[in-house]
Amino acid sequence: MRYKKGVGHFVNYLYYQYSLSDFVRVDDYKIEYFSKESNFDFFYKTILENIKNYTQKPIPEKQEIINRIYIPKEEIINYLSGEKKFYTYDPLNDTPELYLEMNKINICDEKSVMKFIKNYGIPFNLSLQENDEHFNSNLSFINDVETVSVEMNALLFFQELVKFQQILRMWNDIVEENTEIMTKIKLEFENQATFNQRHQALFREALSSEEYANYIFNDSKIFLRGGELKKVYETFKGNPDKLLEINKIGDELNNTWERVKDETDIKTIAFTYLNLKLKDLEAGETGTRVIDGKIVPAMKFNNLLEVASFQLIQAIFKDLKLEECINCGALFEPIHGSQKFCSSLPGRKRSTCENTYNQRKKRERKNMKEHSCN
Asked: In terms of C-beta distances under 8 Å and separation of at least 24 residues, what long-range contacts does 37-44 make, across chains too?
């Protein structure tokens, strides 16, 4: 636990260094695509539209869209029986830049997606049954520590991934003090708040006070509770206009915008909106484990996207400044001041980007030398 002295008070936070489970990668993964004849229902159309809105890019043809990524049944049996080996790693200590590797995934590029999976395993654990119900595809081995996702619905993952990538880019642009981007963030913040206000007003006008009051209580599930809350329900049911005032006070988006809209520092407004967006990310659950005879804070993750979101939030806490790789252009977290390339992948001593860059420069020098000789 760390303490920082403030004005008349102390601020403390826990440093979560440990994970409660290791993640697993294997050698064999398969891809299943949507067929050309696939008839996308409202559920899939909504997901594709969400992805399009986040990326601002056209959606590929149906037969080019990945439906599912999975480990074949026969291979799962081989891993469980010990006939084939799987590889485990601690996501916090062994892959501290996993969040930046996930940021490199291009959902329209199969090679990009599978490159990540080859190095880290399937990053998501939600899939769909035939009746479109979600199920968790995590498989825990005998010791209940090593966890592997054996399949994932690709579109569900892509929808959450592009949201994560947008938030990461937003944070980096704010840290870089990109005034043009921060101005756009402020405008988006204002538009979201305005849209929310109009939606509430239209919905409110369509219902009577009593109907709207019942809607609010049903939505918050207060009607399912007893004791004092039941008495509160009865009180406000007879005075719905008072409930509407309370509901307005509890609207976080509108109230947050009203609080900062006149702020002269645009960076403060941008960070405030970023803070609201961070709440959309699933970033694991807090827990504890024993290390060297002591109980220490630890994190429990359901999938690798949660790990990436947790690492992003930690990077924001630490005021990190990312750099751009001179080989691939991706963002990386510099370990030392002179670093110019993405960090090395787990199990490798040297950066792949650095090797690629040096080889390319070597070929260019060789070509120049041959041309000069001619």
From this structure: 38/62, 38/67, 41/132, 43/132, 44/155
What residues contact residue 345 under an 8 Å CB cut-off, 6+ apart?
Answer: 101, 119, 352
Residues 9-47 as b/e (b if ≥16 CB within 10 A, e otherwise) read eeeeeeebebbbbbbbbbeebeeeebeeeeeeeeebeeb
Least confident of 2-11, 199-208, 254-263: 2-11
- Which residue would you say has higher pLDDT here, 123 or 18? 123
Q: What are phi and psi of 176, to 5 degrees?
A: -75, -5
Query: What pLDDT is stored for residue 3 in this prediction?
Result: 36
Residue 223: CB atoms within 10 A of its CB come to 13
| pLDDT tier for residue 5 given thresholds of 50, 70 and 90 | very low
pLDDT tens digits for 175-222? Answer: 999 999 999 999 999 998 888 777 777 666 777 766 766 666 665 555
Predicted TM-score of the model (pTM): 0.82
Question: For the chain, what is the HEC assignment?
Answer: CEEEECCCCEEEECCCCEECCEEEECCCCEEEECCCCCCCCHHHHHHHHHHHHHHCCCCCCHHHCEEEEECCHHHHHHHHHCCCCCEEECCCCCCCCHHHHHHCCCCCCHHHHHHHHHHHCCCCCEEECCCCCEEECEEECCCCCEEEECEEEHHHHHHHHHHHHHHHHHHHHHHCCCHHHHHHHHHHHHHHHHHHHHHHHHHHHHCCHHHHHHHHHHHHCHHHCCHHHHHHHHHHHCCHHHHHHHHHHCCHHHHHHHHHCCCCCHHHHHHHHHHHHHCCCCCCEEEEEEECCEEEEEEECCCHHHHHHHHHHHHHHCCCCCEECCCCCCEECCCCCCCCCCCCCCCCCCCHHHHHHHHHHHHHHHHHHHHHHC
Q: Which residue type is seen at 29? A: Y
**Is pLDDT above 60 for 241?**
yes
The total number of residues written for the chain in this structure: 374
